[in-house]
Amino acid sequence: MMEMIETETRPKLLAVPMLDFSREFAEIREDVLAAIAAVCESQRFILGPDVARFEAEAAKACGVPFAIGCASGTDALWLALAALKIGPGDAVVTTPFSFFATVSSILRVGAKPVLADIDAGTFNLSAGAVEEVLGADVVGVMPVHLYGQCADMNAFTALAEARGVKVVEDAAQAFGASWEGVKAGGLGDAAAFSFYPTKNLAAFGDAGMVSTRDEVIAERAKMLRQHGMRRRYFHDEVGWNSRLDTLQAAVLEVKLRRVEAGNKRRRELAGLYNERFTAAGLVGKTTADGVVLPFTDPRAEHVFHQYVIRAPRRDALREFLTAHSIGSEVYYPLVLSLQESLKFLGYKKGDFPVSERAAEEVLALPIYPELRVEELESVVEAIRRFYA
Ligand SMILES: *Cc1c(COP(=O)(O)O)cnc(C)c1O
Fold first, then answer.
1. Whole domain around residue 100: which residue ranges?
2. Are the CB atoms for 120 and 358 separated by under 8 Å?
3. Once rounded to an integer, what is the mean pLDDT over residues 100-115?
4. How many Å from the N-terminal Cα to the C-terminal Cα in the chain?
5. Among 20, 34, 149, 293, which one is least packed by beta carbons within 10 Å?
6. Which residues line ligand 1 (CB under 6 A)?
7. What are phi and psi of 134, to 5 degrees?
């Protein structure tokens, strides 16, 4: 009897997609189609003024003098490392709790990835852990601004100065984020961005960008993305073809105008999630006593590329949400130190306990500027029902 009454008064759960690109497209349809049409009319599909204009505007948005468009975020990491002349015989320290490209780009330039554990609060590379693995062959550190929050760049800058190592930011998830007022992309020697369709600044396909404050590095990245040519058909170095497609640049130019407002909305939605989780009495300090909300370092301006909680019985919760047509995702279920293809690095289970635990507990919930408040509330309500 009681149960029936309760069922009737409970709000109905809404289906909530993890991402829905069609909502943004509906808002920008005319501008984007006009930008694509303009490229078609010009018949200039490789580099040209559209790419140069996007690069100039993106550089401005990141507060740096130089931005170099390229084919993907993965290529941007490779170009940044190669432009810094990191290669065989060198080692670069990075995090095991990231997307695969963070480590594969280091391998691609012929250098050795050395992994160090993360901070449990921010999920970002721990500067203290990096110090413990700094061998003589380490020439670079690659912090990842995971989920849209900058890593502790004060610590990495200090470390770089003390040890004479380069800092490459993996800013693939952090366009528009900042650390103590300085934008991601201008916090190290060079940075890599991804404009993969799920990222907070997203192309209609693959695209990426290197940013830097250093003119020499910028020149090298620009040369390397086009077969090591400074002058047509004169190849100073062995580069590659990793140009930013002109059609993608045209799309990105339209979307770049909206990214700041989008990031602001993401922050508001994150605040609303925090509020609703707290009001529902679901929050704990650790997963032993509830859902752990994302921690924002007061020095960071987080852009919430992802809103990620730590959840008790994470996999069962995810199944429950899926059964109610509520999207969620695990970034990332297996740390890089334990990936099949990276076994040769010699790491084993237990080497990075903080990262390994995060891989078991994290759950990303739907967050995008067009997410409706009723949908967000439905996500929290579904999670409340799971734990009730
Ligand atoms: C997306 C992503 C990349 C790779 O970007 P692509 O554009 O997909 O090649 C690299 N690092 C991180 C942290 C990412 O999230």
1. 22-253
2. yes
3. 98
4. 18
5. 34
6. 72-74, 98-99, 101-102, 144, 170, 172-173, 194, 196, 206, 208
7. -75, 95
Residue to mutate, 95, 98, 102, ligand 1, most ligand atoms under 8 Å from C-beta? 102
Angle between helices 373-387 and 314-323 (to 10 degrees): 130
What's the rounded Cα separation, in Å, for the pair 121 and 124? 8
Contact 300, 187 (CB under 8 A): no
Do 35 and 141 sit in the same domain of this protein?
yes
Angle at 307 between CA 302 and CA 213, to 5 degrees: 30
The span from the CA of 266 to the CA of 166, in Å, is: 31
Instruction: Choose the final residue of a domain: 212, 235, 253.
Output: 253
Counting the structural domains of the chain, the total is 2
- Say if residue 36 is in the same domain as residue 157: yes
Say if strands 138-142 and 190-194 run parallel, antiparallel, or are unpaired. unpaired
With b for 16 or more beta-carbon neighbours within 10 A and e for fewer, the 206-225 pattern comes to bbbbbbbbbeebbebbbbbb
300-322 pLDDT, tens digit per residue, is 999 999 999 999 999 999 999 99
CATH of the domain at 204: 3.40.640.10
Q: What string of DSSP letters covers 70-123?
A: ES-HHHHHHHHHHHTT--TT-EEEE-SSS-THHHHHHHHTT-EEEE-PBPTTT-
Q: Is the pLDDT of residue 336 over 90?
A: yes
Based on the fold, state whether residues 90 and 228 are members of the same structural domain.
yes
pTM of the model: 0.96
Burial class (CB in 10 A: 0-12, 13-18, 19+), 255: buried
Are residues 212 and 187 in contact, defined by beta-carbon separation less than 8 angstroms? no
Find the radius of gyration of the CA atoms of the chain: 22
Place of tokens 């650790």: 286
Ligand 1 atom at shortest distance from the alpha carbon of 305:
15
Q: Which residue type does 153 have?
A: M
